[in-house]
Every structure is written in C-alpha cells, then in structure tokens.
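Milestone M4 deliverable, item 7.
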Amino acid sequence: MADSLSPDTHSTVREGAIAGAIGAAVIAIWYFIFDVLAGRPLFTPNAIADRMFGGGASDAGGIGIIAVVTIIHGAVFMLAGMALTAMVHLASRHIEWRMGVLLAFVIGAGFFTGLGYAAGIRDGEQLIPHWKVLGGAILGIASIVIYLWRTHPRFARSFAEVPLGDETDSVPHAPNR
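Output delivered:
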C-alpha cells in the first residue's frame, strides 16, 4: 500500500480479513506440520472439534467436522484481524492510540493462547502440548503484526518519530506542600 493513501482509502474489513486469514493460516500450518511429523495428520483440529462438539475420539478423522472447526477458526481470526486493523487505522490518525494497539495485540495473544490451552484439554489430559499452543500463538500474532506493519508505513514510522509513551504532554502536577 502506498504511504500517500489516506486512512480513508484503507478498508478495515478487507485488510482485517486478510490479516486474520494470514494469522489463521500460519497457525493451521504450524499445527499441521507437527501433526504430520507425529504421524497423525489433522489430529489438532480433530482434538479441537472433539472439545467443541464432543462425543468422539481425537483420531476420528471426520473431515466434515474438521471443516467446520477450520471455518470457525478462520472466521474468529478474521474478526480479530478486523478489530486490530481498525485500531491500527485509528492509531495512524491519532498517535496517542498506539499504546492501545500494543495492548490489543498482547491481550489478543494471551486470549487465543488461553483458548488454545483450554481446547487442548480433555478429561484432564493435555492433548495439545503447551509449547505447541504457545508457538502457534506467537507465530500467528507475529504474522498479523508483520502484515499490518508493512501495509501501514505511517503507523510504523510513527514509532521512529515519537517514542512510545511520548504521545502526549504530561499533566501538570500540583506542587508538594
């Protein structure tokens, strides 16, 4: 995207859907690689489907239910991408919102990591290892950050021009008595 574009020419829905789809795809590929290396392709989405809809073994291989989980996974990440993109657009116009964007990424990463941990537990057994969930979350959020950073150069440049925390003047304090 050209830097000369005004924030109004950026589409929050389009860019957010792309950002979310990138994050969702990176995470899906991460899990797929480890599932294939373990000799159990599609184990992770099947385990999540089992947790969400119940009633089956995690190695059942039901492609229909895996497709439903994949669609839900993509839709949730696209919505999250749209929210983060809207915040980046706001922070591109109003520099004081940059800390909010940073907090949104951190909170989002924590939320999705926790959700992944919860989805990976069945009957007290951890089906999806913690390191796998954390690694996927880090790679997914990093891919979204990289996409938004590269497509919003004004936002990226603002960190070099004004250090984070220097967006506004300090409120004057009353003298100590």
